[in-house]
Amino acid sequence: MKPPIFPGAPRIPSLRSLGLALVAGAELFSGDGARAADTAGGAIRFNRDIRPLLSDNCFSCHGPDKSNRKSGLRLDDPEQPFLPSKSGAIAIVRGNPDKSELVARLYSTDKDDVMPTPGSHKTLTPAQKDLLKRWIEQGAPYEAHWAYITPKRAPVPALKDSARVRNAIDGFIQDALQARGLQPAAEAEPRTLLRRLSLDLTGLPPRPEEVEAFLADRSPNAFEKQVDRLLASPQYGERMAMQWLDVARYADTVGFHGDQNQNAWAYRDYVIDAYNQNKPFDQFTLEQLAGDLLPNPTPSQRVATCFNRLNMMTREGGAQPKEYLAKYATDRIRTVGMAWMGSTLQCAECHDHKFDPFTAKDFYSMGAFFSDVRQWGVYTDYGYSPNPDLKGFTNEYPFPPEIVVESPTLQRRLQSLKKEIAQAAADFRPDPRALDLWKNQSLAFLQKHPAGWESLAPTVTVQPAPPAKGKPAPKAEVPQPASAQEPGYRLEGDRVVFEGKPGGARC
């Protein structure tokens, strides 16, 4: 891994390590909060176990939305629930659920006091109520939004039976299985393992010769060697890039109206190369958000900033430029929030966020960071929306601004074709007699047809239609030429063949 860009910064994970962590995490963080807390030996986490319960059942009346807030209580606030209300009641008393008004309301049988209210059509299960109660017993610790907390390495669970544990990930999985009383499935046979591995890392099944090589390898690290082989293949970057390109809303067309093509393929290649190079994530981030602002940016770093202009665009007649510039800007804010902040900022586009502490002002303040991205609301020069920079632009034109870059893929293909041509030229042995014959035939043709074209006469055949099935053939009435000598006609039995007059042409 390369060192961090900023002095003193912590070591930054690479794209490869993040990808593997996400694959493992899909198994470790599934299930509801109560089950997750039990799996972790009773340790309750606010973000994992409590926040989802409050968000689903309580935040609509006691969350960030000030227009719908009841009794002035904010359960999303890490300080306000511990303060006395106007009535003197305290929603949460750390370490003492019996004195906490929140617990009293959860277990109340009075329809006027119970929370959530019957009118909300929301209910908590007994296990969820007990989870909230135990959280208060443990001191009701709050956590910041999960996306803004520095990840910490969790200790590997201690297991009674560690025979199946080969690495730390196995430890977490085995711990979750044991907590649920489940037994792991039997290990798959080698062919299946290699197929799974190949599909996971490259999206392609293994070739027959690769399967045979794996089966023949009796070394203790045979599987690890296959992992290294697949990580080193170009297809690894293509497989991993798919998820990021979806997040970045990559497309080869502009999306609106005519859905014209746009030249964004260089950004796609940048992402693929980043995975194949195992680029550090901080560098991957910096280059896409502001690669053009780096000192002496490379062509690759400038291409990376295409991320900021992958929004939908239009050149539809009648579209209002300022309206569409606003659309482009809000799209950019939503994508940055989702891709790098792990936050649903789009909820604050029209109003303050209902479940997270973001205001509409926060949303548009984020857009100010990208206000110098050069774009046009309508990508052509209409009379009602003059754009001198786009004079004469039609649907055949690109969507500027653009830079000229070389495609490594096309360069490799070009070099390969040049080698093939050179080899074909080296292997070519001309036949002098065939060459002379071709020259003589060509000269004769040009002497007869100086323009290089030979005029042809069309041929039309008129004949009786075939008889209908089960009926006798009708008597043919074949049109006769006005004269046997009439130019362009000749008789062939009961058919008249029209040969036409000189016209048309062929090369």
List keywords for this structure.
single chain; mainly alpha; disordered N terminus; 3-stranded antiparallel β-sheet; disordered C terminus; 507 residues; two-stranded antiparallel sheet
Describe what you observe in this structure.
Among the domains are: 31-148, no CATH class; 186-232; 434-460 and 486-507, no CATH class. It is 41% helix and 4% strand. The chain is built from 18 helices and 5 strands. Strands 2-4-3 form a 3-stranded antiparallel β-sheet, with no helix packed on it. A hairpin with a 2-residue loop joins strand 3 (489-492) and strand 4. Residues 1-10, 23-36 and 502-507 have low confidence and may be disordered.
Give helix and strand order, one letter per element, not per position.
Answer: HHHHHHHHHHHHHHHHHHEEEEE
Stretches with pLDDT under 50, minimum 5 residues: 1-10, 23-36, 502-507
What shape does the CA trace take?
Answer: elongated
With helices defined by DSSP (H or I, 4 residues minimum), what is the helix count? Answer: 18
Strand content: under 5%
Q: What's the Cα radius of gyration?
A: 37 Å
- How far is the N terminus from the C terminus? 63 Å
